[in-house]
Amino acid sequence: MLTTTPGPVREFLEQNPLPPSLEGKLPDEFRAFTLALNALKQWVAAEQAATDRYLLGRNADTECLAAADVCIVSGASLADGVVELHHPVRDGRPPIPVSKGGHAQLEGQVSTPRDDSARSVLLELKRQANRSWVNLRWGCLDLLGEPVEHSTPRVAASSRTFARKAAAATGMSYRELVSWLDDSGLGA
User: Fold this and answer.
1) Predicted confidence (pLDDT) per residue in 150-168, tens digit
2) Which of 54, 121, 170, 178 is deepest in the core (most CB within 10 A)?
3) pLDDT above 60: residue 61
4) 3-state secondary structure string across the chain
5) Cα separation of 19 and 101, whole Å?
């Protein structure tokens, strides 16, 4: 409805036409949905910041720093003033003060020691071929003779190649790679 009736959404879509290569492939309804979704994200971010200001005032870092001397995740000192605020659940509780490294660890940006060697090798392979963890899982399952529904024959071949390279680089069997993916919560 927003895409067909006169108004700000229709005007925006007309003022910002798609490039010829995308025309006909991206419907106006989807573009309007994306606009609404992004507006909602902006509103939520603003409301979360307002909630933090309400709970802690404008000096959230200072207040949190006064509450803790050591990061509860990494054990690093917070005395140097590099404090990030982690919001585990936005339910009115104040955020948790953590170090930059502790925050990265909480957000899954740092690999854990138990799988560091396999993860680093696999991440490099994944990046080189621009593949996903799902592709690795499908390739391993396919090579194990288990039924897998690939989107195209080309994706099937690429997934099997990724699995072969991963097995060779890590020394792990296809079954071990699938178990590693399961244990890491990847590619499900």
Assistant:
1) 888 998 999 999 999 999 8
2) 178
3) no
4) CCCCCCCHHHHHHHHCCCCCCCCCCCCHHHHHHHHHHHHHHHHHHHHHHHHHHHHHCCCHHHHHHHHCCECCCCCCECCCCCCEEECCCCCCCCCEEECHHHHHHHCCCCCCHHHHHHHHHHHHHHHHHCCCHHHHHHHHHHHCCCCCCCCCHHHHHHHHHHHHHHHHHHCCCHHHHHHHHHHHCCCC
5) 42
Q: What is the pLDDT of residue 115?
A: 44
Instruction: Say what the pLDDT of residue 90 is.
Output: 59
User: How many Cβ atoms are within 10 Å of 37's Cβ, its own excluded?
Assistant: 10
| Chain centre to alpha carbon of residue 142 | 26
- Other CB atoms within 10 A of residue 103 CB: 21
pTM of the model: 0.41
Q: Does 62 have pLDDT greater than 70? A: no
CB-CB contact of 64 with 95 (8 Å): yes
Domain assignments of the chain as residue spans, ordered by start: 1-55, 59-106, 113-184
Average pLDDT over residues 35-45: 90
